[in-house]
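We emphasize that the prediction below concerns an isolated chain of 243 residues; any contacts that depend on oligomerization or on bound cofactors are therefore not represented. The input was used exactly as deposited, without trimming of termini.
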Amino acid sequence: MKYLIINGSPRKKHTWEMAKQAQSNLDGEFEEIQLMKEKIPLCNGCTNCIMESETECPHFDIINPIVEKINDCDGLIITSPVYALNVSGLLKNFIDHTAYLYHRPRFFDKKALVLVSTAGAGEKKVANYIDETLRHWGFNKTYKIAIKCGGKDALETKDINEISRKFNEDVKSEKMHSPKFINILYYNVWRAMASSSDPIEADKKYWETSGLINHEFSPDVKLNPVKKAFAKVMYSIMKKVMK
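Result of the prediction step, given as a C-alpha cell string:
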C-alpha cells in the first residue's frame, strides 16, 4: 500500500506526533508533503480552475504535483492543528487551490485518515470540515481522530492506534463503501450542472470525458437499489431546476 501524508501544520509538534503514531500502525510505503516547505502562494480567487481548467491556475505547477500524488496513493493521511477554530492557513490555502475538485470529483476509490489536534477547542469542527472537503473530492471513506493535547495532557495513543489500524485494514481490503445520501446528492448536483443547457465548459468536458455523466455515481462504487433510485430522482429534479 502507498500512503501519502500531507502535514498542514507549520511545526512538527503534537499534530505531527499524531501522524507518526498513526504511521506506526500502517503497512506500506510512505511519502510526506510538508505544506510549509511547498511555499504555495496564496490563492488569489481568480476562479480559473473552476471556470476554465485547473491547468489555468497561476499556481498549477505547484498544486498539480500534490494532486497527482493524492491520485497515486492508496491512503491519504491529512493533518492540521486547530488555528482560530479552523484548519491551519497552510491547509486552507491548499484546499482553496483545489476548489475545482468540488465541481469535478475524482478520488472515488480513495480512503483517508484525518488527524486534528488542539490545545483548546474546535477539534471536532475542524476534523468534520476536512472530512466534508474530502467527500466533495470523491473520497470513499474517511476516518477521523480529533484530540486535545495541550498543556500536560498526553497524546491519546489508544484512540490513535485503534482508529489508524482500522484505516489500515480498510485500505488493504480495497473494499468500496456505499456512499452517504448527501454524497450522492452533491454528485448529481454537479452532474446535472455539467449536462445543463448552459454548463461551465470545464465541468462539461470533465464529466463527459470521464464518462461519469452517464452514471448515478462513480461506477467504482456500487449503489444498492434504494440509493440508485435516490440518485435517479435527484438527477431528474436537478436537471429540471437547471432549466
